[in-house]
Amino acid sequence: MRLAELKPSLFIASMGAALLLALSLLLAWSTGWHWSPTESAAVHTFTQADALFQAEGLSPQRAQVSLRHRWDSAFPGRSGQARYTVTLPPALLANEPALGVYLERVGNQAQVTLNGVLLQQWGEPRSPVYDASKFSRVLALPTALLQGAGPHVLVIELHAQALRGGGLSPVVVGPLAAVSALQERQQFWSQGPAAAYAACLLLMGGLAAGLWWHQREPLFGCFSLAALCGAVRPLDQWLQHTPLPWPWWGQCWRWPMACSWA
């Protein structure tokens, strides 16, 4: 059968089978990705932090918060900044030459200090074209800053824009090798499926567009438009630097998503 003679029902069935095959291959690949419990034995997860919030139009607020902390849930419709403080216990620092911090999510722009010394900064404060929360983060804790009895204070400061998904995940501290392995595992599950899903949609959308061009069958055209629009949101997860400033960039991918659902 020639491509130009492919029937809509057969096309949809074949595309569905292709998508299921791609997802099955991704699942089969993931079964070989093992996380050893011994690697996480020395890792400590902080689920509480002392926080200072300054939201637009409100007075500063101090509170002890649970991590994961979502800025948009705490201050809906407002931008602002937050300062989270975590004190590292001495037992965690003993007999470990190379420690690291793992942050599954931090954003929208952030910086981390240890005992008042800047360790890392992601994006300029209040930048409308940069979003640090798209990727997880690992940074090493310099041994020179962990000398003495302490206390050793880790501070995470962030700037969040309204409706942009800012906030802070639990703070994980442990051997650098262990937290790096944890990041690799998390990125596989958060980025891998999204990339595979977007690739499948782009492939199906391109094939449907070619069929519509040859046959002028409305179903092919609608399918192509829906598939190509649906690929926009997964692709956005890879863009730390956005083509347009927020919130305009948010509107650019929300409309295609609405078209794909319709």
Q: How many helical elements? A: 7
Mean pLDDT comes to 83
Strands ordered across the widest β-sheet: 3-2-5-11-8-9
Strand content: 25-35%
Helix content: 25-40%
Major sheet attributes: 6 strands, antiparallel
- The SSE string, one letter per element, is HEEEEHEHEEEEEEEEHHHH
Short description:
With 262 residues, the protein is α+β, with helices and mostly antiparallel strands. It has helices at 8-30, 71-74, 90-93, 176-215, 218-230, 232-236, 248-261; strands at 44-46, 48-55, 61-66, 69-70, 80-88, 99-103, 106-107, 109-114, 117-122, 137-141, 152-160, 167-168, 171-175.
Description:
The structure is a single chain. The protein is α+β, with helices and mostly antiparallel strands and 262 residues long. It has helices spanning 8-30, 71-74, 90-93, 176-215, 218-230, 232-236, 248-261, and strands at 44-46, 48-55, 61-66, 69-70, 80-88, 99-103, 106-107, 109-114, 117-122, 137-141, 152-160, 167-168, 171-175. The protein has a 6-stranded antiparallel beta sheet. It is elongated and about 75 Å long. The two termini are 31 Å apart.
Which labels suit this protein?
262 residues; alpha+beta; 26% strand; elongated
List the helices and strands and how they pair.
Layout: H1 8-30, E1 44-46, E2 48-55, E3 61-66, E4 69-70, H2 71-74, E5 80-88, H3 90-93, E6 99-103, E7 106-107, E8 109-114, E9 117-122, E10 137-141, E11 152-160, E12 167-168, E13 171-175, H4 176-215, H5 218-230, H6 232-236, H7 248-261
Antiparallel strand pairs: 1-13, 2-3, 2-5, 4-12, 5-11, 6-10, 6-13, 7-12, 8-9, 8-11
Helix pairs in contact: 1-4, 4-5, 5-7
